[in-house]
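Table S2 (text version). Query chain:
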Amino acid sequence: MKKIPLRKCTGCGEMKPKRELIRVVKSPEKRDGEGNVLTESAVSLDLTGKASGRGAYVCRNIECFDKARKARRFERSLSCRIPEEVYDRMERELREE
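Corresponding structure-token output:
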């Protein structure tokens, strides 16, 4: 029997199968040989679940997303500040999904 990977929703805090959740990912920043930042890290929805970077999971319903947004749980999980326009874009993508 194959084990089903579980992840915790940052909104409601429930453990659910990974496939039922949407991943919010912070992509790693790219640096050149001297350590200068070439591209900043970006936060976005990862609907495939395959993007590289630090991830946090949220249920597919908008209530969990709003709860995690209000409590700044994504920022805590991803260790970065997330601008409001990024939240708004993720919310639009979630509603369209």
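Notes on Table S2: The helical segments are 62-70, 73-78, 84-96. Residues 84-96 form the longest helix (13 residues).
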